[in-house]
What does this fold into?
Amino acid sequence: MLKYTFFILFTALALTTSAQENEHNISGSWYGMTGNTMGEKQRLMIVLEKTKHGYKGQLKSPDRTDVSLPMDSVDYTAGTLRFRVNVVDISFKGGWDAANRRFGGTLTQGGQQAPLNLSQDQIKAADVYRRPQDPQAPLGYREEEVMFTSQEEEGIALSGTFTRPDSARQYPVVILLSDAGPQNRNEETVGHKTFGVLADYLTRRGIAVLRWDDRGTGGSKGDYDDATFDDLAADVHAAIAYLRQRKDVDHSKIGLLGHGEGASIAAMAASRPQDSIAFVISLAGAGLPARQLQEVQMAEVLRASMPQKGDSSITRYIKYTQPWFKMLATETDPDVAQQKSRELLKDMYHKLVGNPMPAEEEKYIERLIAIQTTPHSLSAVRFDPLTWLQKIKCPVLALNGSRDIVMDANLQLPAIEKAVLTGGNQQITAHSLDGLNHLFQQCKTCTTSEYVTLDQTMDPAVLDFITRWVQAVVNLN
It folds into this structure.
C-alpha cells in the first residue's frame, strides 16, 4: 500500500510542478540551433516580451544577419509555445521540458521540418561546429594574402592565400583545387575547412601552398556559374605564372592537388607541356566520363539517402532522368537545349510525381534548368577525364575513400590508373583508403549529411600519406 501511496503523491507533485512551470514568465532571450538536410547549422535567437495580451517577439539568425525579424504571432498556452514569422515562412511549435528547462519542438520553413530546442543558455559561434584540426595561432609559418589575374581578356582577379615555412629559401609548392560548386579558399563545407587543414599540415612540413577563392566567391571576382572547365584550367595556368614570379618558390617543383571536380581541373592543367607540372594528386577524382559517372553517383546517393527504396525504384528513377542528361551532354545549341529541357523535364516530372500541380511543376522545371544549363554545369556533364589523364607525364597520386558514395573508389581508381598508363606514364600510385568518405573523414554511415556530425576534418593518416609522397617526389629532405 505504501508504494501506491508514494506513486500517487509523486504523480500529484509532478503535475503540480508541471502546471507551475507552464505558467512561468518566458520573457527574455532564447537560443537554439537548427540545420538543413546537408547538415549545415545555424544559430537562432528568439527574444520574447510579455504584453497585456500575451507575448510579442523577434527572431534573429546571428550567423546570417544582424537583422531581427518581428514575429507575426506568438502564443504560449498550457506549456506549448507557438510563433510564426511570415516574411521567411517560418513557424515553431514546441512543448516546455521542465527537467531540461527548455522548449523542445519543430521548426518548419517552406514545408521542411527540423527539430529545434530553445533554452536560455547562450550558444556561442565556437559552439556551432567542433573542429579540432583547424589551424591555431601562432601558426609558425608565413601566411600571405595574394592576388593574381586570370589569363582571359577581361582579366578576372582571383584572391587567395600563400603559405610557406619561415626560413628564406625556395620551396616546392602545392596548388589546391576545390571540389564542385563555388568554394572559398579553405574549401569550407559544414564548418570543415578541408584545404585550411591540408595547407597547414603541408606547410609545417616544408611544403608551400597556394589556394584561392573560386570565381565569384570570397575576395575573387567573376562568376562561377559562367566559368567552364577550360576557364578554371586557365585560372590554374595563371596561378602557375604568378608562382614563377616569386623568389621563394622552386619553379621546377610546382604540383597540383585537386579534390573531386578539382582533380579533373588538375588533369586538364597538367596536360599542358609548357607548364612542366612536377606532380598531380587526385583526391576523390573521377576516372569515368561524366555521363557514366552521373548515373553511378545518382544511384549511390539515392541508396544512401533513401534506404527504404529498393533497387528497382532507384533504377526506374535513373531511367526517367537519363534522356534529359543525355540531351545536355550532346546538344550544343543553348536555345535548343533550353526548349528540349522543358519538354524532357515535364515528361520526367509527370513520371516521377504522377499528377502534379501546374505551379509546382513549373517551379521544378525552372529550378533545374537554371542549375543545369549554366556554362559550368554543361561543361561538367560533357567532361571526359580519360582524354586528359592520358596526357599527364609527371608522377600521379590517386586516392579515394572506400566508403565514398559520391566517387566510388572501385570504379574510379582503376579507370584513372588505366588512363595514365595508357598514355605511357608509369608513375602512377593509386590507393583506396579504408573506411573514409568523400571528405576523407573516418565515417559511420558515410552519407553527405553525416559530414557535419564528425569532428574530424581529414584523417591524419591521409594528411601524412600525401605529405610523405610529395616530399619523396620533390626530394625534400
